[in-house]
Every structure is written in C-alpha cells, then in structure tokens.
Automatic annotation (TrEMBL), chain A:
Its EC number is 1.12.98.1. Pfam families: FrhB_FdhB_C, FrhB_FdhB_N. Keywords: Iron, Iron-sulfur, Metal-binding, Oxidoreductase. It is an enzyme of class 1 (oxidoreductase). It comes from Methanococcus aeolicus (strain ATCC BAA-1280 / DSM 17508 / OCM 812 / Nankai-3). Its cofactor is FAD. This is Coenzyme F420 hydrogenase subunit beta. Belongs to the FrhB family. GO terms for molecular function: coenzyme F420 hydrogenase activity; flavin adenine dinucleotide binding; iron-sulfur cluster binding; nickel cation binding; oxidoreductase activity, acting on CH or CH2 groups, with an iron-sulfur protein as acceptor.
Length: 282, 227
C-alpha cells in the first residue's frame, strides 16, 4: 500500500523564530509558511482555523502576520475552512491565497479547482495548499466531552490540546497537564472520518504533521513543484530549521505504519458500507 | 473545427455572460470552435446542426415554441449540454407558478434535462467561466473522464436543492464538515453550524452547486491525481 502518496522530498523541520515556536502545535510549519508567504509577497491572505470562544474552531481569512499567529495550534474539532474560501477572494480581494486544511479539506479544495462549478475566478488565486496529517476529528461537543468530562478541564481554561503517544492531552492556561487514553476518545469521533483513507494530506502542495519527527519538530512533505519551491524558499530565507527525516522506527516507518492503519481500517468501512448498500463517494 | 451553438430558452443570459467572462481565454475558446448560432452575439436565425449545443434556461411547457426548440436541439446536437441551473436543475424557474401578465397561462417550467435527454449538465447560477471553458475543452478533446460528473449530473440531479447535502451527505454519515457547499452557494443559503451545513431553504434557488461540489457525494478519480 502507498502510505504517503506522491512527494518530491521529505524533511524534519521547525520554525526558526523561538518565540513563535512556543505557541505552535509542533514545528510550526503552517505558521511559518503563511508568515513567510505574507512577508515575502508570495501570499496576500490565508484561510486558517482560528480559535473562537471556548476553544471552538472558527474559519478565518487571515491577512496579517498577527492573525496567522493567533490561529496557530490544533483544535481537534471540525472547522469548515473551505466555507470562507470564496470570501477570501471576493470580500478580502486576495489574489494569492494560502489554504490550510485536513486531508479531506485539501481533497475538497482540489475538487473545487478541478471542477469550479460555483467558484468563479478562483483557480489562479489559490497560491498554496498546506495539508496537515489527520487520523480523525471530533465534533465540537465530542471534543468538549473529552476535555470537560474525561480530563476535567473547562473549555475556557484550555491552552493547548494534543494527540500523541496513544493519549489525548489537555494543557491548561494554569500549567496543568491532563490526559486520557486515546481508546477512550473513540466514541466521540466524527463517524464520517471513518471513510477517509488519506492520512498525510496527499493532495496538498506541502503536507506536515507531528508523527515521524521528535517533539517540537514536524515531518514535512513537499509534493508539488510549487510546494517544493515554497519550502525551499522558507529554508533559504531562514524561516525554518531543518534536519533529515529519520527513516527508522520513530520516523518514516512509524508514519507509514499509522497511515496504513488508517487506510486499511477505513477501506474496510468503505467496503462494508458498499456491501450493505450505503453510498460512498469513491 | 468543432461547431458550437448557444440556445437560450427561459433564462437571463447570465450563462452566456459567464462564458464571455473569460477575458483573453474567450479568444482561445472562440479560436478553437466555430460558433454557428447564438442569438445574442450572432445573427444566424435558424438553429443548425452542431457538435455541441449549449442550452441555457428551462423549458416552459405551456409555450409550444419552447417545446419545439427543446425537441429540435436534441435532434441537431451531437452533444447536448444543459448549461447552468435553469437548464440543468430548473433553478429559480422552479418557483414559477403562472398568473402574470401578459401570459398568465405560462405557469410550468422544467429543466431541459427533464424534457429531453441531455448528455451533460453544468449546474450553477451562473456556472463559473472556468467550468464552461473546461467542459468545452474536454468535449473537444474527448476527455470523457473529465466529463463523467457532468454526464452523471444530467441523469440524476434534475431536482437539485440545498437539501441534497443534507439527504445525501449528512443523513448518510458522510459529512466531515469541510464547508465546500457553503462556499459554492451563490446565495449564501448555507451556513455552517457545529461543522455541518444548515440550509436556509427560503434563500436556496435550487442551482445544484452544493451537491455538485460536495466531495462526499462524488469524488472523480482525476481529482485524486496530483498534477
């Protein structure tokens, strides 16, 4: 099975700005990409997942570095990023838009570029798609139940959420850390995620995620020419620190293992749905 | 040279405006085709036989001229394309109910996809210039893979509505909340609430965009190839 999809190169990287590194989820690649894009006139806006009240995820068109920084960090709940895609071009007048999204959102973006039925004059204005690795997502109230009922933390007090090492981690604004076993979060998963067979955002220009790299670093795939050029630019202008990706047990091997688990598990669900006569889009 | 005709039935001409809204690409398109009929921009009076006939607008069942044209274009076209919401899904004309002067009897309107067999249908109000050019280019090149979703849409989606994304996606445990439907909607009839579409039915004009764009209703194979 092809675990990662096509790519040109893969590295481990993190954002060079140490102050920003403290605020980001892992290596801060998405933040670095959009900040680099805005500061170097390669982007004039980006569709991001910003934080709303009680750690809700709110799609937003960010046009300043401050807005990009505010949106750093994973929210672990659905954020309909694409819903503001056309807005970025019409209302904000952006001509070089960056889009960040989960694999399904990158797929949706690719479809809207290939078949832009309701997307007038958008094709040439999507300058970069950045995909983030995604195993599954939670509806807001699912995430809230995990955080409030299982971890005992009020949503208002959440500073950061993370999934890693088999656990769902909640970090509070007061410096506490709570966690529960990932197995206990399964009942709150969005069921529509169970027909998804893309773990590493295989259709993005650049894909990034935590698995495969040490804490505080991200694994980064450059998949398209555009993505590779953009990534090289980030490295050359000093926005990123890089090191070769670890091929071994805690590097690409682990990433491939997780990707294949997602693919085979969810392919079974797709086959099952077909068998009992339910529709699947593939 | 591929011959193309543009025929207007009950519509606003916005689909043709959309075709011409391709700036310099319009010249490429017009250079690659022979536009043999279009009442708005050329003076041919009789619809000739053509490789591709683009029909915009729905068919007034109470107007025998419209009914004759619908039959006529089916006979004369190698590829008959329902261009835009009115032709493909009925669009705004789904709300027609007659009673207005000077033809109070003109009360029934159907998309041409329901009146004669159409080969392809492009939803949207209007469809984007890029998709019209994309479809014409694919038709000229015989790229059947690219055209497949339009062929599918012509067969199975004549009664499009915002409810499609509820019935075919949310109700089928397929919606992952990407928000593509909301972005594609030309009237902002879709709000995303708790990561799911909420359809404002009184605002929906039944153009078919949301259902066509949803990657969880149809995901063409050619989308999944990184170029």
């Amino acid at each position: 099975m092809d675990a990662f999809g096509n790519y040109k190169s893969v590295i481990s990287a993190r954002i060079a700005d140490k102050a920003v590194l403290k605020k980001v989820q892992d290596g801060g690649i998405v933040t670095a990409a959009f900040v680099y894009g805005l500061e170097n006139n390669l982007l004039d806006g980006a569709v991001v997942a910003s934080v709303g009240e009680e750690f809700r995820a709110v799609p937003k068109v960010a046009t300043t570095v401050e807005e990009i920084l505010e949106a750093a960090g994973t929210k672990y709940t659905t954020c309909p990023n694409l819903s503001v895609l056309k807005q970025a071009i019409r209302e904000y007048g952006c001509e070089k838009v960056g889009v960040v999204g989960t694999p399904c959102q990158i797929i949706a973006t690719r479809k809207s570029l290939k078949y832009p039925v309701g997307f007038r004059h958008m094709n040439d204005k999507i300058a970069l798609t950045v995909g983030i690795f995604c195993m599954e997502n939670f509806p807001y109230n699912g995430m809230k139940t995990i955080v409030e009922e299982h971890c005992g933390v009020k949503m208002d007090d959440v500073a950061k959420l993370d999934i890693g090492k088999g656990k769902f981690w909640t970090y509070t604004k007061w410096g506490e850390t709570k966690s529960i076993k990932l197995a206990d979060t399964h009942p709150y998963e969005q069921i529509a995620c169970h027909v998804c067979t893309d773990y590493t955002a295989e259709l993005a220009d650049i894909s990034t995620g935590s698995v495969g790299s040490p804490d505080g670093w991200s694994t980064v795939f450059a998949r398209t020419e555009k993505g590779e050029e953009f990534l090289n630019g980030m490295v050359e202008s000093g926005y990123l620190e890089t090191k070769p990706v670890n091929e071994g047990k805690f590097g690409l091997e682990l990433l491939a293992k997780l990707a294949n688990i997602k693919k085979s598990k969810n392919q079974k669900e797709i086959d099952h749905r077909k068998e009992i006569g339910l529709p699947v889009p593939y | 040279m591929v011959t193309v005709a543009h025929v207007q039935l009950s519509s606003c001409c916005g689909c043709l405006v959309s075709l011409t809204d391709t700036y310099e690409k319009l010249l490429d398109v017009l250079g690659a085709i022979d536009l043999v009929y279009s009442q708005t921009i050329a003076d041919a009076r009789e619809i000739p036989e053509a490789d591709i006939i683009l029909v915009e607008g729905s068919v007034c069942l109470d107007d025998h001229h419209a009914m004759e044209i619908a039959q006529d274009v089916r006979k004369k076209a190698k590829i008959l394309v329902a261009l835009g919401a009115c032709a493909a899904t009925g669009g705004i004309t789904r709300f027609c109910r007659g009673g207005q002067m000077s033809k109070p009897i003109h009360s029934s309107f159907s998309p041409i996809t329901e009146v004669v067999k159409c080969d392809l249908a492009i939803p949207g109000c209007p469809p984007s210039p890029e998709i019209i050019v994309g479809l014409i280019t694919a038709a000229i090149e015989g790229d059947m893979e690219y055209l497949a979703p339009f062929s599918e849409f012509a067969k199975n989606n004549t009664e499009a509505c915002g409810c499609d994304v509820i019935e075919k996606v949310v109700n089928k445990s397929l919606c992952m909340g990407c928000g593509c439907c909301a972005a594609s909607c030309p009237t902002r009839a879709i709000e995303m609430v708790e990561g799911r579409p909420l359809i404002l039915n009184e605002v929906c004009i039944k153009c078919g965009c949301c259902g066509f764009q949803c990657p969880r209703i149809e995901l063409p194979k050619n989308v999944m190839v990184l170029e």
